[in-house]
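Thread: "does anyone have the structure for this chain?"

Original post by V.I.:
We have the sequence but no experimental structure in hand. Need at least a predicted one for the grant figures.
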Amino acid sequence: MEATNHRPTWKTLLAFAILYLVWGSTYFAIRVGVREVPPFLFAAMRFLIAGLVLYGWMIAQGERSPNWVQWASVTLLAILFFVVDYGLVYWAEQRVPSGITAVMMATTPALMALWEIVLLRTQKLTVRLAWALLIGIGGVAGLVSHTLNVGGVSSASQFSLAIQASR
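Reply from O.Q.:
Generated one for you, tokens below.
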């Protein structure tokens, strides 16, 4: 019989609580921060500090520093992910509520899957994956549609009014 290593339930629940509190408050913290600091500078400060802490931790653990090829790869990924993706999130948070930003960022996994299928061709579109993508993007669309107001009327109400008018 194989011995299994079970983690206490309270540790799992604590890890989830920390994850949700930290991750959930990120977009609110960005919203508050961009009121005082220009968005790209604020993002650069955050990610530079985080990168230095992680690099210091890596060195303290006895890992070797990356070589030039690895640094070049990391730099390209950093530009694409942190400058383009998160830079635009920080910039948008000057105008968009943090809740909508957080929900819209939930589309990232679906967009990455589509990127792998269409551009990289490293993933096959299966029926199961297609349904998962539709459900995920549909869920985000449903959440966002209730928060959009055009002329004081939510988009769900506008859709309902449009159906009634067409009858």
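V.I.: this helps a lot. The chain has two domains: 12-97, 106-167.
O.Q.: and Residues 12-97 form one domain.
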